[in-house]
Amino acid sequence: MTAPWPRELKVSAARDLLTIEFDNGETVRLSAEYLRVESPSAEVQGHGPSQRTTVGGKRAVRIENLEPVGNYAVRILFSDGHDSGLYSWDWLYRLAREHDRLWPAYLSALTAKGLSRDEPGGRT
């Protein structure tokens, strides 16, 4: 079974939130920070679970632009210059569905590594 497809993607006026309306009637709001630190790019995900990178200092990151990629994904361009992640519809839906697990895990990883949401190499 495939994930629902987005019918509409909207970036907030402050550019800090992406609202996605899926074709199954669900509407979700994902912060720019969450999207950035959960980027599907190799820079963040590595080439396997053991290579995953915890990215700090992204609390103030903003969404600069959305670029469609075929009919299966969107490239999100962030204010910190990151633009290499292709967010497939399945990936976006997974981020929405698993937010309550992924976000606390990210915050725990930051703490464990002595990183901060405000400064890339700083303490929390």
Shape: globular
Give the class-level CATH name.
Alpha Beta
Low-confidence stretches: none
How big a fraction of the residues is strand? Answer: 25-35%
Looking across the biggest beta sheet, what order are the strands in? 1-2-3
N-end to C-end Cα span: 40 Å
Q: What topology emerges from the helices and strands here?
A:
Blueprint: E1 6-11, E2 17-22, E3 27-31, H1 32-37, H2 42-45, E4 63-69, E5 73-78, E6 86-88, H3 89-97, H4 99-112
Antiparallel strand pairs: 1-2, 2-3, 4-5, 5-6
Characterization of the model:
The strands form two sheets. The chain has a three-stranded antiparallel β-sheet with strand order 1-2-3. 27% of the residues lie in helices and 27% in strands. The protein is globular and about 40 Å long. The longest helix has 14 residues, at 99-112. With 124 residues, it is α+β, with helices and mostly antiparallel strands. The protein has a single domain (6-112), classed as NE0471 N-terminal domain-like. The mean pLDDT is 91. The protein has helices spanning 32-37, 42-45, 89-97, 99-112, and strands at residues 6-11, 17-22, 27-31, 63-69, 73-78, 86-88. Strand 5 (73-78) and strand 6 (86-88) form a beta hairpin.
